[in-house]
Structures are given as C-alpha cells and as structure tokens.
Design a protein that fits this description.
- This protein is α/β, with parallel strands linked by helices.
- It folds into two domains: 214 residues, Glycogen Phosphorylase B (Rossmann fold); 180 residues, Glycogen Phosphorylase B (Rossmann fold).
- Helices cover 40% and strands 18% of the residues.
- Strands 3-4-2-1-5-6-7-8 form an eight-stranded mixed sheet, sandwiched between helices. Strands 11-10-9-12-13-14 form a six-stranded parallel sheet, sandwiched between helices.
- Helix 7 packs across helix 12.
- The chain is globular and about 70 Å long.
Amino acid sequence: MPNTIWIISELFAPDDAATAHLMTQIAEGLAVESKDSKYSISVICAQPTYTSRGQKAPRREITNGVRVNRCWSTTFSKDRLMLRGVNVITIMLTFFIKMLFRFRRGDRVLVVTNPPPLPFVATLAAKLRGAKTYLLIHDIYPDVLVPTGFTQPTSLPYRIIDFATRRLYQSVNQIITIGRDMEKLVIKKNPKLKSKVSVITNWADDQMSPVPREENKFRDETYHEDELVIQYSGNMGRTHGLNIIAQAAAILEQKRINGVRWMMCGWGSGKKELEQICKEKNLQSVAILDPVHRKDLAALISIADISIISFIPKMSGISVPSRMYNILATGCPIIGITETDSELAQTIFDDDLGWVSPPQEPELLAELVIQIYEQRLELARYRKRCQVAATTRFTKDNSIRAYHALLSED
C-alpha cells in the first residue's frame, strides 16, 4: 500500500475562501503529479465554515484524485470570540483523533498555519505516528499581531507564542514560505533553520486573464473612458490601512485633479471606517462596492487601469498578498503601499510591474498617482509585462511541481 501525502487544512472546497481555494488546488495538483509515484493524496479538513457556512459536505469522498476526510466541529458564529474559541477547540480535537488513526510511518504531512493551533496538533500527531511534517506558512505568529496593535513584542502573551512558534519551526522537517521576506523573517528567528526553509509562491487562478473592456460587464457602472481608474479589491482588514487611499483621494480632489477615480471593492473590518471617512470628506472620486464572486473577479480587475495593494507599516515578512498574482494575470499593473523589502515590493521591482509607495504617506501616494496620470500612455507596456510575469514566473504548474519535488524527496 503506498504512503500518503496528507494535506491538513481547516478550509477546503467547497469553501471558497482564499486558503480553501489554494489548499484545494495544491491537493488536486499533487494528485496529478503523484499519479505514477509511490504516494497517494489525502486531505483532512473541516466542514464548510466560511463562504459556504451551513452547507453539509460529504464526510468522505474522492474528488479529482484526492481522498477528502471532513471532521465534525461546532459551527457557531465567528462574530463572538468565545463561540469562535469553542469552534477551534472542537476542530482541533476531531482533527487530532482523525490524524492519530490515519497517519502511518513514512507518510508526509503538509499543514498550513491557520488556524494557529493546527500545525502544533498536526506535528504532534505526525511525531507519534512516525510521519514527516511540512509546515506551509501563510502568516507568521505572533508577529502578525504586533502591527495591528493586538500585542507588543515585550508582552507575556507574545513571548509565550513566539517561544512555542520557534519550537514548532525546529520540530518540523521542512518549512515552506510564500515569499522571500517571509523566508528571511523565519531564518531571523533561528539561523539554523536556513537549510530547511523553501520559498514556493502562490499563483493566479486558471480563469484569470484580461477581459476586453467592450465585453466587460462592469463597464457601464464603473468605467469612464477619460479617467484613470485605480482599484482596490479584496479583504479590507486591519492590516491594509485603507485610510491612506481616502486621504490621497482627498488631496487630489483638493488639487482639482478630476481625472482619477478610485474603486474600492471588498469586505472586512476596515470597510465601515473607510465609508465613514469618505462620507466625512464628501469624496466624489471614491466608489465603495460590494465584493464580487470569484467567477467575476477577472472582469472586475480588468476594468481598472491600476490595482492597489495596501499594507500598514511593519508587515514585511508577515503576510504575502496572494491577490497580486490574479492582478498580474489580468495584465493590471500594481501600486504597492508597502515597505521596499516586502515580497510585494520585490515582485514589482523584479520585472517593473508597477510602483511602490511607503505606508502612511498619503501625500507621496497622491504625487505618484499624478505622475502616473500624466504618463498614462505608458500603461500599455506595464500591462504586457504583468501578463508575461504571471504566465511564466507565477504559474500553478511551477508551484505544484515544487511542492511535489519537496514532499516526495527521500
């Protein structure tokens, strides 16, 4: 009987959250790559809890060559912290029991970092059963809690979580990061980890490609031929610092720069604050829209001249925006509001795919937008470079082959 490569993730299809989408693509891609190898591909996940919350998926099924095992857990609302904690506890318990019964000596276990307790539980089960553990880092804890103000590096909770995280990194067999800045931060925590840290980037969805404006369903309501359309699309969370966009828009309106329009499309805790600022400043150039379904994302991004990805300070190495690969695939250049050593900035710099502006500097962002507006005839060259990068460097096939090579290595 062949050994198994296990994908351990709370989120998996039919959930359509970013982590679910990526982990499903990894599992199904590995199933194709491993068809003639000594490994089968299996998944341990939860019932749908995010975009498909309330939907009952089969407890066991085989889909696209992947054996999916779904664990029971409570599904209380995530809006209440205590009930969310109950969900995490029940998920961890059922995952641990399932892993203890299913893992075998010689298996490979790929576990993602969300929710934060999951890699600790998976690593313990793998150790007990003689399997190897591969940690896929999407967010680095507790570092991600510092820029948002949840804790400080001197606090006791930070030091406890940091100590546990360092021990986790030491105990796993391999670590996979999704960005070069993240790799540096992991190695900074322990230079001895350098030999077991790899970078495997994310990629664009298969359906992401430019949608001609004459065929674009969003053209009538969001697009004007004589305007420079700058779009933010995605999660509007605490780490994204969207106030800078509203402040830059206000500066341009004060200067009577009327040819720039801002599209803000998404969801998250920062959306209400953004709406409030736009209302207080009576901003006419900013449109705040509801999120769109994944199938409409290519059309939404394609209607923009430029996409903007924004972060608050000190996020370099902590989180890498997977949305940038979808943006590049549609041929849309990027303004990255980020530190210059971040993976986002380095990706832009590598192939001249857009521009980088520092966080919390709305005046500099406004000046940059004016420069782009005055030279907007140059955007065609940026669009071409973005598509080339997406179709050559950041492809699913490249990344899946890298995962397969690492996970099947003796």
